[in-house]
C-alpha cells in the first residue's frame, strides 16, 4: 500500500488542509484539530450546525510556512485574521460529552468568526495541553491523548473501500429506480491519512499500521454521523453516504467507515510513503 493523501484540520470542522508531508506526534499530526469553536455555553460548534464552517480556511506554520502567527484564518469576503498563541487562563469546554480545558483566543478572533458565520455567541479556543485528555476506555492505553478530534488522534481511510462504497451507492440507486450518483470524494470522511493498494475494507482486520517508518496502533473503527452527508462545496446535504452505509456497514446501530489510529512514536510521514498493515 501507499499513502496517497495526507490531511490536517487546524480548526475543527474547518476546511481540509492537504499536505505532502507532516510531523506525527503522540497527540496526532502536528496542529491537527488544535483549535475549536464553542458557543456561549462553551460547547462545541461544528459544521453539523453551521455548514459555513467548511469555508473557513485555517492555516498554521505546519500547513503553510508563510504564516507569521500561531493561526491564520481566511474566509471569502473577509480580511485574513492572524491569531497568536493565547496567553489567557484556561476555561472549561465541552466536546460532546467530554469536559476539557482550553485557552480562549480573545475578542478579535471571536468577532471575526461571528462576522463570517453569522452567529453572535461564538468563541475560538486553543488546546494548550492535549496530554491532559485521556481517550476512550477499552480502546486506549495509559498515556494516549489528543487535542480536539472527536475521539482518537488520527484517522485512516482506504480508497479501495471508498470505491466499493461508491459501487454500493450506484447499485442501491438502480434498485430504487433512481439516477445513479456520481462517486463521492473520500474527503467526505475527513481522514488524516488516505491509502490505496489493499482490498476493500481490509482495514476492518488491521491491528497496527506503519506509514514510512512511523508505527500506529489501531484504536477502533470510526463511527459515522451526518457530517459525511454534507457537500463541502455546495454546503447541501443528502441521504448518501449514510443510506448505503446503513445497509452495508451497520454494526450495533452504528455506521462505520475508516479506522482510528494512535501514534506509537513521533516522526515524519509523506505522500508516497509505503504503508504496511498488520
Automatic annotation (TrEMBL):
Outline the extent of the MOSC domain: 128-278
Which one Pfam family would you cite for this protein?
A: MOSC_N
Q: How is this protein named in the record?
A: MOSC domain-containing protein
Amino acid at each position: 500500500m501507499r499513502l496517497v493523501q495526507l490531511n490536517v484540520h487546524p480548526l475543527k470542522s474547518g476546511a481540509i488542509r492537504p499536505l505532502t508531508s507532516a510531523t506525527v506526534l503522540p497527540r496526532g499530526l502536528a496542529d491537527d484539530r488544535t483549535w475549536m469553536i464553542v458557543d456561549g455555553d462553551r460547547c462545541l460548534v461544528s459544521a453539523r450546525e453551521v455548514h459555513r464552517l467548511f469555508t473557513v480556511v485555517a492555516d498554521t506554520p505546519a500547513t503553510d510556512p508563510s504564516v507569521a502567527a500561531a493561526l491564520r484564518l481566511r474566509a471569502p469576503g473577509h480580511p485574513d485574521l492572524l491569531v497568536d498563541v493565547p496567553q489567557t487562563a484556561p476555561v472549561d469546554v465541552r466536546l460532546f460529552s467530554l469536559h476539557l480545558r482550553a485557552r480562549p483566543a480573545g475578542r478579535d478572533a471571536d468577532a471575526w468568526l461571528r462576522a463570517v458565520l453569522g452567529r453572535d455567541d461564538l468563541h475560538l479556543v486553543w488546546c494548550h495541553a492535549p496530554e491532559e485528555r485521556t481517550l476512550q476506555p477499552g480502546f486506549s492505553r495509559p498515556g494516549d491523548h489528543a487535542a480536539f478530534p472527536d475521539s482518537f488522534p488520527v484517522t485512516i481511510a482506504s480508497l479501495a473501500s471508498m470505491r466499493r462504497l461508491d459501487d454500493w451507492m450506484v447499485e442501491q440507486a438502480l434498485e430504487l429506480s433512481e439516477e445513479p450518483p456520481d462517486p463521492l470524494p473520500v474527503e467526505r470522511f475527513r481522514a488524516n491519512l488516505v491509502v490505496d493498494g489493499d482490498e476493500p475494507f481490509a482495514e476492518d482486520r488491521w491491528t497496527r499500521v506503519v506509514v514510512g517508518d512511523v508505527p500506529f496502533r489501531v484504536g477502533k473503527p470510526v463511527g459515522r454521523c451526518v457530517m459525511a452527508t454534507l457537500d463541502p462545496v455546495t454546503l447541501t446535504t443528502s441521504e448518501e453516504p449514510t443510506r448505503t452505509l446503513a445497509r452495508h456497514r451497520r454494526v450495533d446501530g452504528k455506521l462505520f467507515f475508516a479506522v482510528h489510529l494512535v501514534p506509537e512514536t513521533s516522526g515524519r510521514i509523506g505522500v508516497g510513503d509505503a504503508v504496511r498493515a498488520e
